[in-house]
Amino acid sequence: MPGENLSRDEARERAALLSVDGYDVSLDVRSAVGESQDEPRTFRSVTTIRFRCNEPGASSFADLVAPGVTAVTLNGKDLDPGEVFDGTRIALEDLAAENELVVDARCAYSRTGEGLHRFVDPEDGEVYLYTQYEPADSRRVFANFEQPDLKAPFRFEVRAPEGWTVWSNGAGELADGVWRFAETRPISTYITCVVAGPYHYVTDAYSRTLPDGSTLEIPLGAMCRKGLAPYFDADDVFLITRQGLDFFHEHFDYPYPFGKYDQAFVPEYNLGAMENPGLVTFREEYIFRGKVTQASYEARANVILHEMAHMWFGDLVTMVWWDDLWLKESFADFMGTFANVGATRFQNAWTTFANRRKAWAYRADQLPSTHPITADIRDLQDAKLNFDGITYAKGASVLKQLVAYVGQDAFLEGARRYFKRNAYGNTRLGDLLSVLAETSGRDMGAWAGKWLQTAGVNSLTPQVLLDGDGRVAELTVLQEAAESHPELRPHRVAIGLYRLEGGDLVRYARAEADVDGPRTVITELAGADAPELVLVNDDDLTYCKIRFDETSLATLRDRLGSLTDPLARALCWSALWNLTRDALLPARDFVGLVLRFASRESDIGVLQMLQAWAESALVNYVAPEGREAAGRLLAEGALRELRQAAPGSEHQLAWARFFASTAADEPGLRLLQDLLSGAAAIDGLDVDQELRWAFLEPLAAHGLADESVLAAELARDDTASGKRHQVRCLAARPSAAVKAQAWAQVVESQALSNALVEATIAGFAQASQRELLAPYAEKYFEVIAGIWADRSIQIGMDVVRGLYPSLQDRPETLAATDAWLTAHADAAPALRRLVLEARDDLARTLRGQECDARAAEAAAG
Fold first, then answer.
1. From the CA atom positions of the chain, what is the Rg in Å?
2. What is the percentage of the chain residues whose pLDDT exceeds 70?
3. Lesser CB count within 10 Å: N end or C end of the chain?
């Protein structure tokens, strides 16, 4: 892994020296099918790069990660591959003013989801290929200059097995056995793409009359594996696509610039999706094999719109280097929700954003690895790890605050000018700030310094003083920051006052104000009736942790379910979860609130988030001595809600899944068995194949579904999805031999694909098996340095994160982590970051358990 790294300094030096005029890339993937003696299995890649050098006679290098190079020609001169290629770079000496480099290489198919991934469908034996490059894996497929600011036009041609279809960024056609694709506009290497195989492909079209009277025609396509075709609701994908294209054309005033718009749902995908212009790739789990809730459809729509926003933010205009990754990801994350609310049926998407996306941001922003939104990215390993909750969700939250700060019209006009001035180019922070300063008249430098260039999250707490008549004499908002990141920021917030009316908790007063500094008096609310709940950051305008005064917290403990506004309710739940994670609210109190009030949650996405938080509270923050009783209460509550939910409703489905995840005693597990066998039924609950696997995992984890049961279920669902479920369930079984085998498959072997590594890790770590997993804590620290050195960065991340012994929640594990960090001070910074993050989560777990234990002792005494 380290030999594949590229530093920011190297990229800057190369960009100052070179400019690229174009690529011709020829791939021969006919070797993807049939038997192969190669190890690894390889394909031929021939690349021609035309580029200029502004210092003739200088030296540089091209990037290529490949098992071998057959020939290298520079400006007509044959170079010795053994002398110029070291496995990751091709040395280029004595460059001319104008150059042509031709590289004929043997590149390897991937099983890790990086580069050109090869997947064999167990259902029918068909082979499927797709590429995934971000941030720097196109060099695994063709020779190039792998950095975002060396943009160029690309022409691809692909020789594929007979009967296959091939897609790339541009429109393609088959002639004389070769698929040839139209030249792209100038784009970065990491967003080029090839998809090939016997995919099921559906077409549609989009048209729009432009302001100049011309008509924009965009061919639409969507594809998936043949085995998923019966479940593929392409009509809904196309509906969201057309709605999104209308929305962005209306707001961006820059026509979609990349011709066609294909969307490929591909197997064993590491990401949610990738914004390759003209050929967006998605994980195929967004095709739903069983019944799911509307939250899943909303999430898919959000991802479709997120990737579409990238066509402008990221593809048309691209950051110079990964420091400014936020220029594409933060904007796309914001625009995904902005468009979802503005263009689709998912009108409550900002509620989901407040509840789900921000939870990701709050966690990331309190880790020791937190960083400013504009990050310091030294190299590609840093870049890979910064696709995180800061860059995505915090960045999007800050953009929402920016819209409140400058106004929506000024924000969108700034975006329009940004596209027109920088089309097909690369930008830095200042390029965007300058247009926003123009359109808003605001001091964007000061705003950026506070919000984009400092790390950490602020807490906002209300203080209420009442006069003799019971009215608000003074309402103050206190702002605090962690000692490690003491920056106090300007917040544009709404403060809502709530009271009970006819049994409902409703807002009766609201004021918008600028909160700045440690103490801000909200004069607009003086004289209002005394509130029972003060909600700082009502309507979720800013990015902060909400705190409560004592009266408000007491009201939520008694009346949270009476809060009628869905967004306000979601904000309160999020705040209570942050209090739990910060060891300010006992975990069993949070679980109790979920048991009392979750049944009244109308928003299905919020309900499912509450269920996930309740389970996390049980596993991580409830004191060990209270875990069994709290778990039993959760399972009983889940079963009660399951039986009371409307038959066939999505709430019923959500409670069924939650019950399966919490069932641990003999009656609950027996009910799962009976639901699987048909001996029991719950009115309206369809136990489809995906739900069957959800029921089987806890049975496997408690020793009630052995290898033969899981083999029989795989025979029933002999598909790629079924295989992943079976692998996870096999690794979940409570046996020392099973755990040893799972460990060996992930740590000691590279035979498993990325998807099966992920499934094995997920099954291995079962909360009910802490003692069984104890021996692997010491082993973890013995192997991770070797894993990081030997595996691809994606697999390294999966293993280091997934196998950290977080279930060994004892001070001894914290001490072992500290010992490893001390002994490996010179380890790769990205590896140390992953271990530091896991350590921080464990320390937070122990603080939460102490808080919960103290509260239980106080209640008992």
1. 28
2. 100
3. C
